[in-house]
C-alpha cells in the first residue's frame, strides 16, 4: 500500500506529478486555506503532509495525525510548525531553501526602488487621470525621491537571502553593511561587506533591509527605539516576517517622518488590512510575494517532492530542518 500525502494548497503541477508516482496524493484545491477543522480531520489518515506558512502545525494537529511521519513545508521559513514537538514524535520536518533565494532578493530590491523613487505613487497619478487633469507635462519638483546608486544599504540577516540582496546592492555600487548573529568572513570578502552592530547599522544606513527568520530573538526587533535610530531619509524594507517589525511603531515612524518610507511584503497577520497604514503614501505594500516567480515556485514544488521521495526510500531528505530526529526514527514509512 502506497503512503498517503495531503497537500494543503494547489502547488505547481511539476511537484504534484512527481509525488503521484510514489504516493497517493490528495490536494486541497480551494483558493482559501484549508479550514482548521477540515485539516484536523484529514490528517488522521495521512503519512505525509505538505504545508503552507498559513497552516499552524502544532500539538493539536500532531495529536490528530497518528500515522504522520514527515512534514514538508512549502516555504524556507518554518515558524508555523512546532518543530520541537514534531522531533519528539519522530516526525521529520523539511523546508525549501535556496530555490526562492533569488526571487526574494529581487523583490526586496524591487520594493527598495519602488519606495525610493515613488513608482507606485507615480503609477496612481497617471492611471487616475490626475496627470491629464493637471495639464502639466513635467515639473522640477514632482515625485522627488532618493538616490540608490552609491548609497549605504544595511542588511539585517546575512544568510542566503541577505547575501543575495548584497550581490544586487554591489551592482548599484552601494556600501554594504550587515548584521547577523555570526560574522561571515567569506561573504565579507566576496561582497566587500562590513559587519556592524545592529544599532550602528541602523544609524548609518540609507536603506535597511530585513532578511532574518522569525525567532524569539528577532520578534519585534525593529521597534520604536530602533526606528528612531534610523536616518530621517532612510527607507525600511521587510521581506522577512511581519512580526520582526512592531507595526504600530512603524506607522508612527512613517506618519511623523522619523524615516522616509517603507516597503513591506510581509505583515504581522496575513491576509492583512490596516486602514491607518494603508492610507499612508510613503509605504509600498505587496501581499507576501517574495517567492512568486514561476521559477521559484516550481523549484519549491520540486524540492518538496524530492524531500518526500527521499524519505520514502529510506534516505535523509535533502533539506531536513530537524536533523536530531534521525536519532529517534530512521527515514521511511515502515
Overview of this protein structure:
The protein has helices spanning 13-20, 36-42, 59-63, 83-88, 101-116, 119-127, 130-134, 160-171, 185-191, 198-204, 224-227, 247-255, 275-278, 294-312, and strands at residues 4-7, 24-27, 48-51, 70-73, 92-94, 152-156, 175-179, 193-195, 207-210, 235-238, 261-264, 283-285. It is an alpha/beta fold and 334 residues long. It folds into two domains: 4-95 and 294-328, Rossmann fold (3-Layer(aba) Sandwich), CATH 3.40.50; 100-285, NAD(P)-binding Rossmann-like Domain (Rossmann fold, 3-Layer(aba) Sandwich), CATH 3.40.50. Helix 1 links the parallel strand 1 and strand 2. Helix 1 runs parallel beside helix 14 (294-312). The longest helix has 19 residues, at 294-312. The protein starts with a strand and ends in a 22-residue tail after the last helix. The model has no long low-confidence stretch (mean pLDDT 97).
Give structural attributes.
5-stranded parallel beta sheet, globular, Rossmann fold, alpha/beta, 7-stranded parallel beta sheet, 12 strands, 334 residues, 2 domains
List the helices and strands and how they pair.
Elements: E1 4-7, H1 13-20, E2 24-27, H2 36-42, E3 48-51, H3 59-63, E4 70-73, H4 83-88, E5 92-94, H5 101-116, H6 119-127, H7 130-134, E6 152-156, H8 160-171, E7 175-179, H9 185-191, E8 193-195, H10 198-204, E9 207-210, H11 224-227, E10 235-238, H12 247-255, E11 261-264, H13 275-278, E12 283-285, H14 294-312
Parallel strand pairs: 1-2, 1-3, 3-4, 4-5, 6-7, 6-9, 7-8, 9-10, 10-11, 11-12
Helix pairs in contact: 1-14, 5-8
Amino acid at each position: 500500500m502506497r503512503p498517503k500525502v495531503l497537500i494543503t494548497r494547489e502547488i505547481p503541477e511539476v511537484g504534484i506529478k512527481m509525488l503521484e508516482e510514489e504516493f497517493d496524493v490528495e490536494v486541497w484545491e480551494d483558493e482559501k486555506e484549508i479550514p482548521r477543522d477540515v485539516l484536523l480531520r484529514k490528517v488522521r489518515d495521512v503519512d505525509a503532509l505538505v504545508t503552507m506558512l498559513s497552516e499552524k502545525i502544532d500539538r493539536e494537529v500532531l495529536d490528530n495525525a497518528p500515522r504522520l511521519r514527515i512534514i514538508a513545508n512549502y516555504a524556507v521559513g518554518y515558524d508555523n510548525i512546532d518543530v520541537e514537538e514534531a522531533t519528539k514524535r519522530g516526525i521529520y520536518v523539511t523546508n525549501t531553501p535556496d530555490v526562492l533565494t533569488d526571487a526574494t532578493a529581487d523583490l526586496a530590491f524591487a520594493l527598495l526602488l519602488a519606495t525610493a523613487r515613488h513608482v507606485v505613487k507615480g503609477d496612481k497619478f497617471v492611471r487616475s487621470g490626475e496627470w491629464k487633469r493637471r495639464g502639466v507635462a513635467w515639473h522640477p519638483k514632482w515625485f522627488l525621491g532618493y538616490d540608490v546608486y552609491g548609497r549605504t544599504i544595511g542588511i539585517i540577516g546575512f544568510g542566503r537571502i541577505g547575501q543575495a540582496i548584497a550581490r544586487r546592492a554591489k551592482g548599484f555600487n552601494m556600501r554594504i553593511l550587515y548584521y547577523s548573529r555570526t560574522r561571515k568572513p567569506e561573504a565579507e570578502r566576496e561582497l566587500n561587506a562590513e559587519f556592524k552592530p545592529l544599532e550602528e547599522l541602523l544609524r548609518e544606513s540609507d536603506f535597511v533591509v530585513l532578511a532574518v527568520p522569525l525567532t524569539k530573538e528577532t520578534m519585534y526587533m525593529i521597534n520604536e527605539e530602533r526606528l528612531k535610530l534610523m536616518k530621517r531619509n532612510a527607507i525600511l524594507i521587510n521581506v522577512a516576517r511581519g512580526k520582526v517589525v512592531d507595526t504600530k511603531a512603524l506607522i508612527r515612524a512613517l506618519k511623523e517622518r522619523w524615516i522616509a518610507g517603507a516597503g513591506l511584503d510581509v505583515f504581522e497577520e496575513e491576509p492583512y488590512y490596516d486602514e491607518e497604514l494603508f492610507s499612508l503614501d510613503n509605504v509600498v505594500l505587496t501581499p507576501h510575494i517574495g517567492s512568486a516567480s514561476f521559477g521559484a515556485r516550481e523549484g519549491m514544488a520540486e524540492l518538496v517532492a524530492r524531500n518526500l521521495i527521499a524519505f520514502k526510500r529510506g534516505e535523509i531528505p535533502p533539506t531536513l530542518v530537524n536533523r536530531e530526529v534521525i536519532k529517534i526514527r530512521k527515514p521511511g514509512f515502515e
